[in-house]
Amino acid sequence: MIFQTRAGDYRKMGTEQCADGVTFTFQCPKELACAVVLFEKKTGKQAAKIDVLPQYRVGSVRSVTIYPLKAEKYYYCYEIEGKRVRDPYGERVIGREKWGDTERTLDDALLSGFKKEGFDWSEDVSVEIPANEMVMYKLHVRGFSMDGRGRNKGTFAAVMDRLSYLKELGITTLECMPVYEFEELMENGRLNYWGYAPSDYFAVKSSYASQKDADWEFKSLILETHKQQMELIMEMHFVPEQTAGAIIEILRYWVMEYHVDGFKLLGAGLPIAEIAKDPYLTGTKIFYEKFPYDLKEENYGNIYVYNDDFLYPARKMLNHLGGDMVEYTEVMKRQQDGGHSVNYIANSNTFTLADVFSYNEKHNGDNGEENLDGNNWNYSTNYGVEGATRRQFVKKIREKQMRNAMAMLCLARGIPLIWSGDEIGNSQNGNNNAYCQDNRIGWVNWKNEGRYEEYTEFVRELLQFRKEHPILFSEKPFQMSDYKRTGYPDLSYHSSEAWISDVKGNARAVGVMYSESYAKEEDTEETFLYIGYNFYMGLQVFALPKLPKGKHWYQIMDTAQMCPFFKEPRLLKNNSYEAFGQTISILVGR
Predict the structure, then answer these.
(1) pLDDT digits (tens, 9 = 90+) for 538-563
(2) Which positions fall inside the Glycosyl hydrolase family 13 catalytic domain (predicted)?
(3) Residue pLDDT, tens place only, 370-383
(4) What are the DSSP calls for 149-165, one per residue?
(5) Which among 509, 510, 507 has a CA at the least distance from the CA of 499?
(6) What distance in Å separates the CA atoms of residue 193 and residue 433, rounded to the nearest whole number?
(7) Identical topology for domains 4-85 and 132-472
């Protein structure tokens, strides 16, 4: 094949397919010789090397259109001063199609490929779930589906097969750990399972696909997620070498090309204000650990504060490890100025929820770093036995604590985030940093589904209860006053005596009452919620405020029970109730 060249379009880096060929645009210092090298897709052999002439240059950007060239028949790379390099803007990486392929070397994946054109987005509709209605679920595409039943394990297709399960659970928003191309082989022989490393940010991870076209399979997952009225958030980790302009260009690409709904951003010194304000991204949800205060004051509705501010107060209170009731009640009702808060008690870089109550210490020895990696401050407790046990007493208190933790998460203001597998008691054997564990430590154990069926149902009921009671996720700040003149404040604290707050640092119990009229239409019936948090080991009496004439208190949930939500509400005849030690109860006044 004899190829010809003409000047390309310098405005867009990477490749662009046109009617008769392909435009290649890349960086190369003006004094260096460079070329585009083509390889036959069928044979893998070099087909041509086309020099990029000096006149095809603006500054240090080279752009050339090569024709006649059918993209679907070739792979390519660039050659700069005799050294072959992969296109950093390439939309496919050739050579990493098999996950963890130790038969290849780190230099084998030097070629880039072209994306498959023509994906049909015609049925796609932007979901735009309001922040106060969101429930997040974080997963690792491979680990989510490797250990259990089902087809296409470890792929986007397997996640797609589970969307109906997640929808039924009450999830609105998926957060996917890195799904763009990264090198999973590390020089020390271990696997970079999580994917936080220098990456090919414009290419979908080909080994996460069940078919050869990873880009189409990921687009299909996003399309199906939107059909289920759910969102998909991409986790993006940027190394310090990435420039601000490149980062914004990458994020725009995934929004425009893949219709993703948001990004959880990781990395120091990111241009977070510029990202949030970028005109192409103001409709995209941006999650980050901390935002500049002036950005929050400008009230950009797309910023989401995502950090462990909820995790520590909740774990300390649950496990009696220096918990502070003032601190906990503050994070329970917190609202970020100009932004939204994400709450979690377990995440990928912590213990799983089950392990929070099964291990005193981290057990990261399998990572090969002499247990020196991972967080040392876990605020966890094993309740007498380190790890798995057959002791029924220990197992029951751990399961009750899991119910308490999930209740705390789902009943607090802010966006609840569930780490994948926590709804079925998944364990990582005490490993709180499973970054290199592509095995049963890092995989979700779906064989737990049967054993934890009642717990999963409890999570589902909690999320449904949350959805039915907007006062729990109202965007209006709690004023703790009767500003509507209904006779009741929007939020109030109680203890063994009604209307007398016992919220002090060393307290271990509090009754939290919500007047639901503050989150409802004016003409609806006034109802009340009362949540009793008893973190004491023993019984605690909660006094209940007197309700308007004709209304009564009913208990509907008690984490002391294996199936906490009662089939029938229990009428409380007295203006108090007694809570078992280490339990959370829900009462409704109607």
Answers:
(1) 999 999 999 999 999 999 999 999 99
(2) 138-466
(3) 999 999 999 999 99
(4) SSSSTTSHHHHHHTHHH
(5) 510
(6) 11
(7) no
Pick the CATH number of 4-85 from 3.10.580.10, 2.30.30.40, 2.60.40.10, 3.40.50.450: 2.60.40.10
Does domain 491-589 fall under CATH 2.60.40.1180? My reply is yes
* Interatomic CA distance for residues 589 and 573, integer angstroms: 12
| Structural element, H or E, at residue 175 | strand 173-176
Q: What is the DSSP letter of 63?
A: E
Q: How far apart are the first and last CA of the chain?
A: 80
Contact status, residue 154 vs residue 217, Cβ threshold 8 Å: no
Encode 132-160: b = buried (16+ Cβ within 10 Å), e = exposed. bebbbbbbbbbbbbbbbeeebbbbbbbbb
Q: Which CATH superfamily is domain 132-472 in?
A: Glycosidases (3.20.20.80)
Taking the C-alpha atoms of residue 471 and residue 276, their distance in angstroms, rounded to an integer, is 28
Separation CA 201–CA 219 (nearest Å): 16
- CA distances (Å), 309 to each of 21, 218, 295, 410, 414, in order? 53, 32, 20, 16, 12
584, 530 Cβ separation under 8 angstroms: no
Pairing of strands 180-182, 565-571: unpaired
Instruction: Quote the DSSP letter at residue 115.
Output: P
CA separation, residue 517 to residues 21, 331, 514, 524 (Å): 64, 23, 9, 8
Q: Specify the amino acid at residue 252.
A: R
Q: At what angle do helices 311-318 and 325-332 cross, to 10 degrees?
A: 130
CA distance 53 to 79: 13
Strand partners, 112: 76, 93
Domain boundaries, the chain: 4-85, 132-472, 491-589
Q: What is the full DSSP assignment across 527-549?
A: -EEEEEEE-SSS-EEEE-PPPST
Residue 212 CB-half CA count within 13 A: 6
The two structure tokens encoding residue 35: 């070329």
Who's near 395: CB < 8 A, 6+ residues apart?
389
pLDDT-derived band at 502 (thresholds 50, 70, 90) equals confident
pTM across the whole model: 0.96
Phi, psi of 564 (to 5 degrees): -60, -35
Question: Chain-centre distance of CA 450, in angstroms?
Answer: 25
The predicted-structure confidence for 303-314, as pLDDT tens digits, reads as follows: 999 999 999 999
The pLDDT of residue 299 is above 80: no
C-alpha distance from residue 502 to each of 499, 506, 553 (Å):
9, 10, 21
